[in-house]
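Example (one chain per record):
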Amino acid sequence: MKRITLLGATGSIGRRTLELVSSFPEEFSVVGLAARGSNVDLVADLCRKYSPRAVALLDGAARDQLARLLPAPRPELLAGADGLAALARTVDADIVVSALVGGVGLLPTMAAIQAGRTVALANKETLVMAGPLMTAAARAKGVKLLPVDSEHSAVFQCLVGHRRSDVHRILLTASGGPFRETPKERLATVTVEDALRHPTWKMGAKITIDSATLMNKGLEVIEARWLFDVAPDQVQIVVHPQSIVHSMVEYIDGSVIAQLGVADMGVPILYALSYPERRPTPAARLDLPRVEHLTFYAPDPDKFPCLRLARAALESGGAAPVVLNAANEVAVGAFLDRRIGFTAIAELIEEALERAPGGELGSIEFCVATDAATRRFVQGAIEKRSGRPA
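Predicted structure:
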């Protein structure tokens, strides 16, 4: 039986992971849970159902509230960023599912790697922020990084049985988001509700907005560069509105291998949990005659400048991807709070990148410091725009 520590238990990926654990009770058990702490009642319910040995909540007050909800004997309760990292490091798990949203997943994911634990990676921000550090640590510890994102799982599956040296390029597919057919001039006036209407996937608010700006694809390009050890220009994006082809790998002989399936995150999650084996799932099966048409076209970086900014950050290297990610998280949060308009997200990111510190990415501590400084800068820039505190 595989023992699982789940970072991000109350998010969409976390909840889907737990559904799969329940579907395969003879194969998986939960030994650790972590969450931000915004839904303590749900965490308490999960503790009663899955009986983890330890639970970590980012919010210390939420940890105390959880202690009051759970009678003794209760799991070990940890709090704060150090608590999340301690959970990933010390709880004896066979696999750590990194599904926290945003930069908060950086330290616990690194802690899991340094402890020698297999990581099922749904938190793309960790490789965006610290790709060279994360992959170097994984190599040193002999740790497998198993992708959970549907696109990167697709690439991973297309690479099975092939030499990495034979890869010509990776083609990451994008649905195009809710604004793929919206004229550029109308984007300045779109609402939060408009941006949250994703045409294909049901996801959390932050990643749904990233899909609307196409920043999600920009982040995935950076993640793929490190996860699959390819040059930046070997990772390309193609818009595929049907979301049937989840990604492709083109080899040096011109052959293109694609992974197809219905839009169900349970498939890549279960593949990561059960790798190198596969397990039957109740997911709907792909019926190509009913699909009829598969279309592809190039994205428009002028209409979606976040793609250009992500590419620029990857090419600059060093701290630039850290700045890109932090600025995006703060800007997206401000948009969801209706403090800035949709197009201001990219504008704020570009402002932050213009002042990104130079030099190599020397340590996780430097990542954390750069992340914090960028967040302060962008919050200040938002306050100037809106005239009220960020």
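Caption: The mean pLDDT is 94.
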